[in-house]
TrEMBL record:
SUPFAM superfamilies: Metallo-dependent phosphatases. InterPro entries: Calcineurin-like_PHP (IPR004843), CNP_phosphodiesterase-III (IPR050884), Metallo-depent_PP-like (IPR029052). Residues 9-221 form the Calcineurin-like phosphoesterase domain. This is Calcineurin-like phosphoesterase domain-containing protein. Belongs to the cyclic nucleotide phosphodiesterase class-III family. It comes from the Bacteria. GO terms for molecular function: hydrolase activity; metal ion binding. Pfam families: Metallophos (PF00149).
Length: 448
């Protein structure tokens, strides 16, 4: 399907949310026509939430739109939480033992049919990897149909580590398209738990193979709030929502035209529906990434200190760590990086790149392969009167991110059931109780 060429172009979109409404249908069709006119040979990437509620009719609408577009046969897509969780809100659940029927009967069969049309891909579950020109491209999909976050099996995590190791050995950068963002990266990245309980494990893998760009959507930031973030595990890119960008620039056809070459990713911003270039939102990701260069060559002390300062910068995510306030759509009070930090990062990247080239372009190879935690399935037990205790412990915020997030997911599910008791069966309540007790049993204190 994909041919290796020196430079490739991709139209990169996210969050179409097709739902049968004529206005949205027309906006997506116009976006695809405009994008194809600007880059006739480009491939299309749709990074999740193809549909609004993942019904068979909505998946059929998506298939029809793509088939009628210039990108028929040249489209890469991931699944988003709106695609996999189904249309019935009582079934929406972020706890790791959740396993909604919709995922198995509708979303997974739709995506399996789509994958059958891709040639020369390496597949694990619903995730796939392929070589695209100078890069490895990975479509990383959840293994369960959760409400907001993703869930990756141990097999998928091991496969991802092996895929990135293979790309690193070939000195290929890796582009990971995943609907949900890594936590503590972009503004609102912690909404709904971010990528979920495997966030730390994903970062462990990426730190070993940091010549990687992790590209996500999901949080519906608009241009001006979306951005590119440098981290010790690679680079994170936030995509605007095509359907409903909730802050920043709020056009109806936001997306990027991405040019992929061996030494950079050039991201050109567009409002495709308005047929308008938005160069003020463009950016370039140099390759190899700064983290990969540091891994390949010893970094001078001055460069290392500058990178450490930049990598430590974080948005305040407290509003989005709390389910009671995580629906806020306000913009951040200031950009993540100051102008001085942006200038310093560019200077460090250029300095490291020159040193790497002078050293003969050595490969970035981890000192040791990443050690992944073993799978630890939760043990279902009963819950009786522990919701209040769970709320007190959750508000304490003295536990590790993963265990605190697990408690947040389980408690949110119980609170929904308490608010809507007639919508759930006794089996649903027993399962939710078991999840909450398991989350309480697995709380782990932070270590400083």
């Amino acid at each position: 399907m994909l041919m290796s060429t020196p430079d490739l172009q991709f139209v990169v979109l996210s969050d179409l949310h097709l739902n049968g409404q004529p206005e949205r249908h027309a906006a997506v069709k116009k976006t695809l026509r405009t994008a194809a006119a600007q880059a006739p040979g480009a491939y299309l990437v749709v990074n999740g939430d193809l549909t609004d509620t993942g019904t068979p009719d909505q998946f059929a609408e998506y298939n029809a739109v793509i088939a009628a577009s210039p990108f028929a046969g040249r489209t890469l897509a991931t699944l988003g939480n709106h695609d996999v969780r189904g249309p019935r809100w009582p079934e929406w659940d972020n706890t790791p033992l959740a396993d909604p029927r919709h995922f198995h009967t509708v979303a997974a069969p739709f995506y399996t049919d789509y994958l059958a049309g891709l040639a020369s891909v390496d597949r694990q579950g619903l995730s796939v990897a392929m070589t695209v020109g100078p890069a490895a491209v990975i479509l990383l999909n959840t293994d369960k149909g959760l409400k907001d976050s993703a869930e990756f099996s141990p097999a998928t995590l091991q496969w991802l580590a092996g895929t990135l190791a293979h790309a690193a050995a070939q000195q290929r950068p890796a582009l990971i398209f995943c609907h949900q963002p890594l936590r503590n990266t972009h503004w609102r990245s912690n909404f709904g738990g971010g990528v979920g309980l495997q966030d730390a494990t994903l970062k462990t893998i990426l730190r070993a193979y940091p010549n990687t760009v992790f590209i996500s959507g999901h949080i519906h930031n608009g241009f001006g709030v979306t951005g590119v973030i440098d981290r010790p595990y690679g680079v994170a890119v936030d995509l605007p929502a095509l359907a409903v960008s909730e802050n920043g620039y709020q056009g109806q056809g936001s997306g990027f035209l991405l040019t992929l070459s061996a030494d950079r990713l050039v991201w050109a911003a567009w409002d495709f529906t308005a047929v308008q270039r938005l160069p003020q939102f463009d950016f370039t990701v140099p390759l190899p990434t700064a983290a990969a260069l540091v891994q390949a060559i010893p970094a001078p002390a001055v460069d290392w200190a500058a990178l450490q300062e930049i990598w430590a910068v974080r948005f305040d995510q407290h509003l989005f760590d709390d389910p009671r306030t995580d629906g806020g759509t306000e913009e951040p009070p200031a950009p993540l990086y100051t102008n001085a930090q942006q200038i310093a990062l560019t200077a460090v990247q250029q300095h490291l790149l020159a040193a790497w080239q002078k050293a003969g372009r050595p490969a970035a190879v981890p000192a040791v392969p990443p050690v992944l935690p073993p799978d630890q399935p939760a043990s279902p037990v009963t819950l009786q009167g522990l919701a209040q205790t769970a709320q007190v412990l959750w508000e304490a915020s003295v536990f590790t991110t993963a265990s605190h997030l697990l408690l947040q997911f389980a408690l949110a599910r119980v609170n929904v059931m308490l608010s809507h008791p007639t919508e759930f069966s006794e089996r649903d309540r027993q399962t939710a109780r078991a999840h909450l007790v398991t989350a309480l049993q697995n709380l782990r204190p932070k270590t400083e």
